[in-house]
Amino acid sequence: MWFRNLRVYQFTQPFSLPDDLDAQLEQYPFNPCGRHQLASFGFVSPFGERSEVLHHKVGQNVLICAKKEEKVLPASAINAMLDDKAEAYAQEHARPMPKKERSALKEDIVHEMLPQAFSRFSVIWAYIDLAGQRLLVDSSASAKAEDFNSLLRGALGSLAVKPWGAQQSGDVFFTEWLQQQAAPTPFELGTEAELKGLGDEPASVRLKQQDLTSEEVQSHLAHAKVATKLGLVWDNHMSFVLEDDYAIKRLQFSDVVKEKNDDMAGADKADQLDADFTLMALECNALMDELATALGQTNDD
After folding, report:
1. In its keyword annotation, does this UniProt entry include Cell inner membrane (predicted)?
2. Half-sphere exposure of 264 toward its Cβ, with a 13 Å CA cutoff?
């Protein structure tokens, strides 16, 4: 359950938790795909299939989980069957198949193949930080996070959020921190960055396991490159890569953090999830507060 990525959204209107949250989430439950259904997406219990509880609240933090099933249909298989049928049509009618008919035929082929298709499952975790008025989604892809937001918006009736971050693009801050060879306290520069040049076809440099205070990095910056991704370490609690749209990726919690729950070894899954979520939310909320300060954010941003 420990989040690996963070797509963070700020509520633009005061948000309070509905008293009947589970009942609202139950309007959009996850159900396995039917025989001819391409995908299914809905809420599931954070505690697993045997539980009917669709959210878990600890203090001012509310954990929610959604599951998605997608039928896997290789494009090559669809196109091969489509080409065969289009060729047979051309031979029979002495002319190519019209574009409109070809499109309809492709839909029929997909419909025909769906019952035999394999399924791919994925789970998206998220939690609402009521105190900080934020929604944090564990997703590296913005499209998947937005899918979750749409699902939650449907259940709640509205979801007034915007992507979290400063008004300026992150590359402005990252480049300045690299030029200064230090991140704002209590952050430290990590060992990863991506630098890009300017222009229509900018050069790109990806640095891993690199001393970001080195002369090599300063040379890239001197040649008009800007930092679009930056590895950071927060107070020996977490390491992560911050991107210029303020997405947090490759989030890793230190042993110092996880060892706080060592006494939960052997506990049942529900108690373990409760303890892990409590600790993780505490750390992530503090991280977001510290990042806001480092980026010069105010309550009005």
Report:
1. no
2. 16
Residue closest to 112 by CA, chosen among 149, 135, 85, 134: 85
pLDDT tens sequence across 183-206 = 999 999 999 999 999 877 788 999
Q: Which residue did the predictor score with more confidence, 97 or 301? A: 97
Cα dihedral across residues 92, 96, 98, 103: positive or negative: positive
d(CA 174, CA 243): 9
Q: Which residues of 23-52 are buried (b: 16+ CB within 10 A; e: fewer)?
A: ebbeebbbeebeeeeeebbbbbbbbeeeee
Quote the pLDDT of residue 299: 54
Q: What is the 3-state secondary structure (H, E, C) of 185-249?
A: CCEEEEEEEEEECCCCCCCEEEECCCCCCCHHHHHHHHCCCEEEEEEEEECCCEEEEEECCCCEE
* Cα separation values, 293 from 12, 61, 136, 168, 296, Å: 19, 21, 18, 14, 5
Mean pLDDT of the chain: 92
Tokens 């008025």 label which residue? Answer: 133
Instruction: Give the residues across from 64 on adjacent strands.
Output: 126
* Contact call for residues 111 and 83 (beta carbons, < 8 A): no
- Burial of residue 205, with CB atoms counted within 10 A of its CB: 0-12 exposed, 13-18 middle, 19 or more buried: middle
Residue with tokens 């934020």: 134
Q: In sequence order, what are the residues at sequence separation of 6 or more whose Cβ sits closer than 8 angstroms to the Cβ of residue 100?
A: none
Contact assessment for residue 280 and residue 253, using Cβ atoms and an 8 Å cutoff:
yes
State which H helix or E strand residue 61 sits in. strand 61-72
For tokens 């800007």, the residue is: 226
